[in-house]
Specification:
Length: 262
Amino acid sequence: MSEKTRDNLPVIGILTGISYVSGLDYYKGINEIFGRIVGKRHLIPANPLMLLASVDCDIYAKMLTDKEWTGVAAHLLQGVEKLVSGGMDVLCIASNTGHIAFPAISQKYPDLEILHIADCTAKQIKSLGLSTVGLIGTEPTMREAYLKDRLRQHGISVVIPQEEEMSKIFNFIMNELGFNDFKDDTRAYFVDQIRALQSYGAQGVILGCTEIELLVDQSHVPEVPLFPSAKMHIDAAARIAAGTQDVTDYLPHPIPALTKSA
C-alpha cells in the first residue's frame, strides 16, 4: 500500500464507555487486524488513525433499565458529537445495545457512515447459508426491535430466550461481565441458554454482547455455530480502516431508505 493511499484511509470513530470493557476490545482488535492487513510502514505493523469517545456507563445503564430510550440516544449522541467534531469518517458503536441510538444518530448526521453491528453479523450468517438464529445479549437487545429488525432486512429470523431468562441474563451482564468478572458457573448458565435457543429452532446463536463473547466461545459449545457480533464488527471496522472494504459492502440489499443517507 502506497504512502499516498495510507494517508487517505477513512478515520474510524469508536463510541465506547458502554461498557469500557468492550471499548478496550475494539481498540485492541482493530489495531491488530489493521496491522496484519497493512503490514509495516517503517519498523512495526502500522496502526490506523482512530478517534475514541467514551461516555458514562452508569448513566447509560440507568436509562436502559428505566427504558428511557430517548435519553439513551441523547447520552450517546454526546459522544458522537465529539467524534464528528474530531473528523471521524465512519462511526463504530462498540456495543450491540448502543445501536438503539442508530436512528437518532442517523437523523442528526444524515451524511455520516455508520458501520452497523447487525450488518456485519448478518454477512457471516448468510455466508453459512443460515436463516434463523438465536440472539442472546442485554435485555433491550433481546426484547426491543432495533437489532432484530435490522437482521430481518437481511432475511434472517431471530429466536430469543424464554421470558424468565432474559432478566437473569441481563443481571449477569450488568453485575459481573461488565466488570470483567467471568465465572465458571455463569459460563455454564450461558452455555445452557445457547443450547436452549438451538432447541427452539435456532441454527446458530448471535452473541449479542461483547462481554458475553469474552465469557463464551465456540470451544464451550461446539455443536452450535456461534456468531460473536463484536468480533465481526471489529473485523469489518479494521478492513474498512485499511481500505480493503467499505460500509456499503455490509448494508442490506436493497438498501433501506433510512440507512443511506445514514
